[in-house]
Amino acid sequence: MIEPLLGFVAAVREAGVAAPADRVRLLVEALDQLGPQRLYWAGRLTLCTSRDDIGKYDRVFRKGTKSPDTVKHRIKLETSAVQGLEASPGEVLRHRDYATLTERERGEAARMLALLAPVAPQRPSRRHRKAPFGPVDTRRTTREMLAALGEPARLRRQRRRTRPRRVVFILDISGSMAPYADLLLRFAHAAVRARPTMTEVFTIATRLTRVTGAMRKRDMDAALENMVPDWRGGTRLGEALTVYLRRFGHRGMARGAIVVICSDGWECGDATELGEAMAWLARLAGRIVWVTPHAAKAGFVPATAGLRAAGPHVDELVAGHSIAALTEVLKR
Asked: How many DSSP H helices and E strands does the chain contain?
């Protein structure tokens, strides 16, 4: 069904929906998981990014079938199927602690993670663009006044453009984080596939390993087999972060980036070294988010040596025990 699908996407684009290549890829992946009978919702959830897009998308979808009643019936069937099969069990699964899932539930969670498109953080650019409101664009306003031989002209406005902000994931896959390692790696895989040039992934156990290249592969299970050499080893957070800063971070990778450190804070090395590395990282990064699976537990206190050393340099300490918790990390 690739040719008809590409024709449908072309029609959606003609109607004014951007539908970039990465979202078309997500549509194909969604249909691969859900089947072609779920085209309406698969397309709506992957191609539409605003309320205006939904109206344009619906008009294109209705044009594909001559009978409006048939379209309404199909949408109704898809909606009830999504609500009955996906929304209720899927929503429950999204909020479940990943460490408590069965093997079958982890398989379902893996499919859900493969369809994720984590939000892309933005940062202000030095460049400006035309806008109906905002600061006065003095150059454009002056040019129009000169063209009118000095007569008063309408004030033109502008606002800053935005540019994608780099995201760096540093994932603790040591023994203490083993129940959540698969969740973290699959989430990072979804983030890399959504923005391959603006996302970096490193793993930490006994040493630092850059795994961004492996994360760009389509098949996450195949990539996991030989990706990490020190899986479930000890944790040397301070030493690994220092290596990251010397080899990658200080040369530009961490500058202005959002650095997401996923770890429970158990440190086998010197916690003082971790504190110094975090202070160095805080001077370079735009924002540091520390994700720990234990933050969602009642009465949680950052009592481990690693969390105590890192705490003063972290912008936010958040939970990362479930799919739902991780999808909120980059929205903050």
From this structure: 15, 8
Q: Would you say the C-alpha torsion 135, 140, 143, 145 has a positive or negative sign?
A: negative
Task: Note the helical H segments in 148-270.
Answer: 178-194, 212-215, 220-225, 237-247
In the sheet where 258-262 sits, what is the strand order?
208-210, 199-204, 167-172, 258-262, 287-292, 316-319
Phi, psi of 300, deg, nearest 5: -65, 135
- Spatial distance between the Cα atoms of 72 and 121, rounded to a whole number of angstroms: 36
The residue ranges of the chain whose pLDDT is under 50 are 66-75, 77-79, 81-84, 86-88
Give residue 285's pLDDT: 94
* Class of the CATH domain delimited by 167-331: alpha beta
Q: Which residues pair with 273 in a beta bridge?
A: none
Delimit the CATH 3.40.50.410 region(s) of the chain: 167-331
Number of neighbours of residue 156 by Cβ within 10 angstroms: 18
